[in-house]
Specification:
single chain; Glycosyltransferase; 2 domains
């Protein structure tokens, strides 16, 4: 075992390769067959529980974060002690390259230009020759899609750190935004938590514009028009007279101010950005619980003169390594870790499928979750002055950023368990529920991390080309909160409930479904909303709920399952369409059962799909990405989604099995 693995336990890593699947299972939707499938799943998942009580599986994403891990250590000069890991990263990046020459944003997407550029550049600075066959194929793939100038802003910034792209082609980020007063229409707290924790340290980086020179630290061969003739203008698909065009005009003004060194109170602002970054480091060394914020924070502090052996940097570097997965062959980085989310949903799946609420494994998991509750003020307090403390975060540590989705799941899980100290549990759940209620937005819905974080105009700034600068309320998350209130029978004010239901009704698509912000996509959003509304006590025969279940029925695949491609975020014609997957089939079944269709033919066929596709070891195989980070730009494969959601669906179907 390497020093990296000793730092942190390894997550469960599920194979992409299908295992042995039972080809024949009699009467797949019978009580006997469903019970046997549940038993196999229980056996498999109980073996995956960690001794401390939690469940945790890999959070798989594209290769850019691993490439950026390489960039960080090359800049800091800390790649030498990690030579073995760097060699394994080369193996990993080569393995993830697809036959067409590029690297994928999500499984089976045909390749994506920015992902491919970062992978190519990482391999190049690790020693792969541009003349190697795999590098030639990658170059052809990238050039066919327009080359470096067509990449996303973050890719250009990472190239600029090595002089491989001119800094003048990157958006200007004035550090003085740190000095804007609380009453000003825009402060850093109008950015989503993930954008805020990544952007503040990046203000320091983009002000200094450092360049680390490496012998092979350029990608001149990836400029389709040649580097000398490259168009460095920030792309604006909407045109000159659009809002984006106006912001590009502002960027030109900022660049002119920068050229003449006119930046009000710059040193004070940079010092404040440094202070904010240091103060937002968790005790564990993490920043924001996400790799982009962690990498940017280390780069920002490096630009302020912090050496790799500085205590803050050392803790941060160790924390980054904890997000990495090392095997005998390769090494790669996860975007985040999901133990609280995985554990909460696993408890619910086990309970739904018949496990006793005082089962020792579940009690241990519940006690672990209890210890992870956050009783301190975080960034949410900036816009929610009166809310109590008591939420949960997604990760092992992320005290500044608890979120309403994880908190709702944990509340539902703990509420149904029988723990040793029930009075303490009830006190904690009351505090957590009151925190969630205090996070309701003005429009009636819930966002993930903040109240009323919905300044959509920020998605039009040049820096915000991922269109994920804010955290507005969404129907799927609001549905989860309502499900929590319904399951726990918490006496929430009726006015809050009414506003939430009105928000959901307003967000319903004309087809009957709901958009999924945090899962792919309309299947996820629709099942979350239906489960929430019905748990709350609404009649599933309400016309708009029936419209939703009819939509779910309409997109069932011939094999009995459901699937939806990530491409549905950009193309409404692909709503509810895609290869069947275990997780998405489970979501559809859960939505239909909640919607009063547990005895329907569609549900029976969905259950048959889950029963017949289960592997002999009790797991399901799913290479598809069904988790959403940023719609159209970043997706994830939660390696336990394929296992606990089917178990949940099978458990809720049992009463309808014949």
């Amino acid at each position: 075992m390497s020093s990296f693995q000793k730092l942190y336990p390894m997550p469960i890593v599920e194979s992409r390769v299908p295992l042995a699947v039972r080809s024949v299972r009699p009467a797949p939707a019978s009580k006997e067959s469903v019970a046997a499938t549940i038993e196999r799943s229980h056996h498999y998942l109980l073996e995956k529980q960690y001794p401390e009580g939690y469940w945790w599986a890999e959070l798989e994403a594209n290769v850019t974060l691993t490439a950026e891990y390489v960039f960080l250590h090359k800049i800091l000069g800390t790649d030498g002690p990690r030579a073995a890991q760097m060699a394994k990263i080369r193996t990993y990046l080569r393995k993830e390259q697809r036959e067409h020459g590029g690297w994928e944003l999500f499984f089976g997407d045909g390749g994506e230009i920015s992902t491919s550029i970062e992978a190519y550049f990482a391999l190049k600075i690790l020693g792969d020759s541009p003349d190697d066959p795999h590098m030639k194929k990658a170059r052809e793939f990238i050039l066919a899609r327009g080359g470096v100038t067509k990449a996303r802003i973050f890719t250009k910034i990472h190239l600029a750190l090595f002089g491989a792209f001119p800094w003048e082609g990157c958006p200007t980020m004035p550090p003085w935004i740190m000095l804007l007063p609380d009453w000003f229409p825009f402060t850093i707290y109008e950015l989503a938590s993930w954008a805020r924790s990544s952007t503040v340290p990046l203000l320091i980086v983009c002000d200094k514009k450092p360049v680390t020179t490496l012998p092979n630290g350029h990608v001149d061969e990836l400029y389709a028009e040649g580097r000398a003739a490259a168009n460095l203008a920030i792309p604006n698909p909407a045109g000159t007279f659009s809002l984006g065009g106006a912001f590009i005009g502002v960027d030109k003004t900022l660049k002119l101010m920068e050229k003449y060194n006119f930046s009000p109170r710059k040193e004070e602002a940079l010092a404040l950005a440094e202070k904010w970054t240091v103060e937002h480091q968790d005790e564990s060394g993490d920043w924001g619980g996400i790799i982009p914020a962690m990498l940017n924070s280390l780069l920002g502090l490096h630009c302020r003169g912090y050496k790799p052996d500085h205590p803050v940097m050392k803790k941060g570097l160790d924390a980054v390594d904890k997000f990495c997965i090392e095997t005998d062959e390769d090494f790669h980085t996860q975007p985040c870790v999901s133990p609280v989310w995985d554990t909460g949903l696993m408890i619910l799946a086990m309970l739904d499928s018949g496990m006793a609420p005082d089962h020792p494994a579940l009690v241990k998991a519940g006690e672990w979750l209890i210890e992870k509750q956050i009783f301190r003020d975080g960034d949410w307090k900036f816009k929610n002055k009166t809310g109590p403390q008591g939420g949960w975060a997604f990760e092992f540590w992320n005290d500044f950023f608890p979120d309403t989705d994880d908190t709702s799941v944990v509340i539902m899980a703990l509420d149904r368990l029988k723990l040793k100290n029930e009075e303490d549990k009830k006190r904690r759940l009351k505090a957590a529920t009151e925190w969630v209620l205090s996070m309701q937005c003005k429009g009636g819905g819930w966002g993930a991390f903040d109240v009323d974080n919905d300044m959509e105009i920020l998605n039009e700034i040049p820096y915000g080309d991922l269109k994920a600068m804010v955290d507005p309320p969404t129907a799927d998350l609001t549905g989860h909160v309502l499900e929590m209130l319904g399951v726990t029978k918490y006496p929430a004010p009726q006015e809050k409930i009414d506003r939430a239901v009105a928000f959901i009704r307003k967000k319903q698509e004309h087809e009957g479904c709901w958009w999924g912000r945090w899962g792919v996509n309309y299947i996820y959003g629709t099942h979350m909303v239906i489960c929430g509304l019905v748990a709350l006590g609404l009649d599933p025969r309400e016309a708009y709920i029936m419209h939703a279940t009819q939509w779910l029925n309409s997109c069932q695949n011939e094999d009995g399952g459901w699937g939806e491609t990530c491409l549905s975020y950009g193309d409404r014609n692909l709503m509810g369409q895609g290869k069947s997957t275990a997780s998405q089939t489970a979501w559809a079944v859960l939505g239909l059962i909640a919607g009063g269709e547990g005895k329907s033919e569609c549900v029976r066929r969905g259950i048959e799909y889950l029963v017949t596709t289960q592997n002999d070891d009790g797991s399901w195989t799913e290479p598809e990405y069904t988790g959403t980070g940023f719609p159209n730009h970043f997706y994830m494969n939660y390696h336990f989604y394929r296992n606990y959601f089917p178990l949940m669906a099978l458990g809720r179907f049992r009463e309808f099995a014949k």
